[in-house]
Amino acid sequence: MFHRLLSVVRRQRTGRGWQNWSSGRSGASAAEAHSVALPAQAHVVICGGGIMGTSVAYHLSKMGWKDIVLLEQGRLAAGSTRFCAGILSTARHLSIEQKMADYSNKLYQQLEQETGIQTEPLLSSLLRRMPELDTLEIMKLVNCPETFTPDMRCILGESPLVQGYFVLAGMNSAGISFGGGAGRYLAEWMVHGYPSENIWELDLKRFGALQSSRTFLRHRVMEVMPLLYDLKVPRWDFQTGRQLRTSPLYDRLDAQGARWMEKHGFERPKYFVPPDKDLLALEQSKTFYKPDWFDIVESEVKCCKEAVCVIDMSSFTKFEITSTGDQALEVLQYLFSNDLDVPVGHIVHTGMLNEGGGYENDCSIARLSKRSFFMISPTDQQVHCWAWLKKHMPEDSNLLLEDVTWKYTALNLIGPRAVDVLSELSYAPMTPDHFPSLFCKEMSVGYANGIRVMSMTHTGEPGFMLYIPIEYALHVYNEVMSVGQKYGIRNAGYYALRSLRIEKFFAFWGQDLNTLTTPLECGRESRVKLEKGMDFMGRDALLQQKQNGVYKRLTMFILDDHDTDLDLWPWWGEPIYRNGQYAGKTTSSAYSYTLERHVCLGFVHNFSEDTGEEQVVTADFINRGEYEIDIAGHRFQAKAKLYPVTSLFTHKRRKDEVELSDLHGK
């Protein structure tokens, strides 16, 4: 098969010869070595003649590319590929991996028909034909290098540092399963500028320089090896390579019971264990059912609703874009869908879209001055967003892009009493009349100056984000906690944040939004200004979609007949059924302590019952359906919503706020 794939390579015998030598790994004799003349130029050069290199060459030729050169130091398929015959499984943890494996399986059968080569992907089939193989003894143990990655997912995509340099590697012993699909997606990326599927979970840019430490890789890979075949429970964490990136508050929070998870190498608090809880039991809790931290997160959410909580969100990616003239505004207006020509001090929620109108990034941008902007993005956007901006920004010495993630500690003050805490610490009125929603102002907090205070919380709850120069972080945190005692302040973690944002129907990039999701498909039309006076990337695609309609729609589902204590929980990836027909999958899930129900977010499609083709999805189509969420084969009824639910709990909270305000006023 691999020699057949090589036939797509066009060899031009010009220039000096290249010695194609046989390495020890190939097992080839010296007589097999021969000289091959390299062409003077090529459209693409592929290094490595294993299944990945040959797959990319095959798919590029199928897509019409010529002058493809494949370089291999030994023989084709002479590396780890030759030891993996038969290891082809389509049962994979990630949806994109399943698609790659399915495509590979079909491709190999197609190649067998094309070439007449016999392929036998499954050992069981071979044993049925030759039962005597079952009694054979192992006479020789073959040991060869294999590649593994820090998160057990392969690496695919364009380098963030060198444009036109693509990588496909780190198969974690699944090269045969992924070879066909991975080669196809990378070839699509090279030819069209993007793959046909969302491959963010495999994208090279999910890693940064921080994951290239040899010591980190050595320790992590030793952990990864046994985990490849282990049961993956929800929200499990790697144990090696930890405490690599931490907030200045890490030790302080750790001493108060913080339990940690890691995102892009950054330690983030999940929740805070009270002194009376069994810490060991919580650490060892692994289940698909109701987790042991349920009551802990409930108390944190309740505090966010009724008093005030502090969440350390320092891991968020933070960029500053400045210019000497209007260059910064002009570039951002082109790269983002919303109108950023707003008064100084205003914050804009917007999307960084690609030509197809899909989200390359979902972020918030504050205008600090006429020529300076502060951009806040998800944690794992640090490399991807930087590469995208650098790729599309002009080479202008008067335009500066700076990554300031490490310069600021971010504290999220959530809850109705957050305004009281900040009012005392800043000696400034923080009411909506003086500090409206989505507003940014530099203030003094305690003894510290230059704190960027923003009236938003990423949850839909009232409160403020504080971006604090790192040298002031501990002081500001201590002051907030000290003043906040009278208002019932406590620490909270990302599990509480997740519950709050999902019940408010807040979609997150990388979970609910991706490069193939447009603002019109997830109810974010308000974050797009089609008529802002200038063109922007993705505008044409959105105009066409607005005219033709959308083919999927992000929807919120509230489970009705689900028993939180006894039934398996939804986590993400559960099938959605509309009127008994498959309609999509969930993208994220959380228990809403407000609604006392599980809430799932997911995209609803309208598949034709006759052809299976996708059809337009309208609000009426969503509202007229009867829905079920399939959790491990058991379907639960669910109510579909296109907008957040206003609950009785919210009204009760407002009533309690008034009573508490009266009490403190006496």
Q: What is the fold's blueprint, element by element?
A:
Elements: H1 2-6, E1 17-20, E2 34-37, E3 44-47, H2 51-62, E4 68-71, H3 95-115, H4 123-129, E5 155-158, E6 166-169, H5 175-192, H6 214-227, H7 250-255, E7 258-263, E8 266-272, H8 279-283, H9 294-306, E9 309-312, E10 317-323, H10 327-335, E11 347-353, E12 359-369, E13 372-377, H11 382-392, E14 399-403, E15 408-414, H12 418-426, E16 440-445, E17 448-454, E18 463-469, H13 473-484, E19 490-491, H14 494-503, H15 539-548, E20 552-559, E21 575-578, E22 581-592, E23 597-607, E24 614-615, H16 619-623, E25 627-631, E26 634-641, H17 648-665
Parallel strand pairs: 3-4, 9-19
Antiparallel strand pairs: 1-2, 5-6, 7-8, 9-15, 10-13, 10-14, 11-12, 12-13, 15-18, 16-17, 17-18, 20-23, 20-26, 21-22, 21-25, 22-23, 23-24, 25-26
Quick overview of this protein structure:
By secondary structure, the protein is an alpha+beta fold. Helix content is 28%, strand content 23%. The chain is built from 17 helices and 26 strands.
